[in-house]
Design goal:
alpha/beta, Rossmann fold, 5-stranded parallel beta sheet, 9 helices, globular, ATP-binding, Adenylat_kinase_CS, transferase
Length: 183
């Protein structure tokens, strides 16, 4: 199973990615982990990413795309994967389609975690992080709507929308049931 998880900040993607990865027997690949691994191992891509991050800039798509390409060529991803945090925009989605196309593969599904905006704000404020002020949270949500949400249109025939309110177990159950129905 080759999946992309999509949802706004605070929707529980990271939590669900870890649980679904284990239940489906595929690796959970997050861009944050890719950055940390590449930087920690001082790979050429990691050094490039670090130079941008040290300058306070976003890591360009080309660097992120290459990290994902490298990771998807690892043996454990041959039978499937779960991407969390990638693609973040439609140009990355197009690159992912190309990477998979080179291997004569395509995504199984794009799992969209749906949570009302006010609930997202409430959840993130409850985390108590010093940088999670309401203004910062609303800005992050606006960036998600502007940059990431359009990939749902790109993948429209593969999107499975999940109600992401409730316990972790309830949400996982909904996602697994929807994936079973989708195949």
């Amino acid at each position: 199973m080759r999946l992309v998880l999509v949802g706004p900040p605070g929707a529980g993607k990271g939590t669900q990615a870890a649980v679904l990865s284990e239940k489906l027997g595929v690796p959970h690949i997050s861009t944050g982990d890719l950055f940390r691994a590449n930087i920690g191992n001082s790979t050429p891509l990691g050094q490039k990413a670090k130079s941008y991050m040290d300058a306070g800039e976003l890591v360009p798509d080309e660097v992120t795309n290459e990290m994902v390409r490298d990771r998807l060529s690892d043996e454990d991803a041959a039978q499937g994967f779960l991407l969390d945090g990638y693609p973040r925009n439609t140009s990355q989605a197009e690159v992912l389609t190309g990477i998979l196309g080179e291997k004569h593969l395509e995504l199984t599904a794009v799992v969209q975690f749906d949570v009302p905006e006010e609930e997202l704000v409430k959840r993130m404020l409850a985390r108590g992080r010093s940088d999670d002020t309401e203004d910062v949270i609303r800005r992050r949500l606006a960036v998600y709507h502007e940059e990431t949400e359009p990939i749902l249109g790109y993948y429209q025939d593969k999107v499975i929308k999940i109600d992401a309110l409730g316990s972790i177990e309830e949400i996982t159950g909904r996602a697994l049931e929807a994936l079973r129905s989708h195949q």
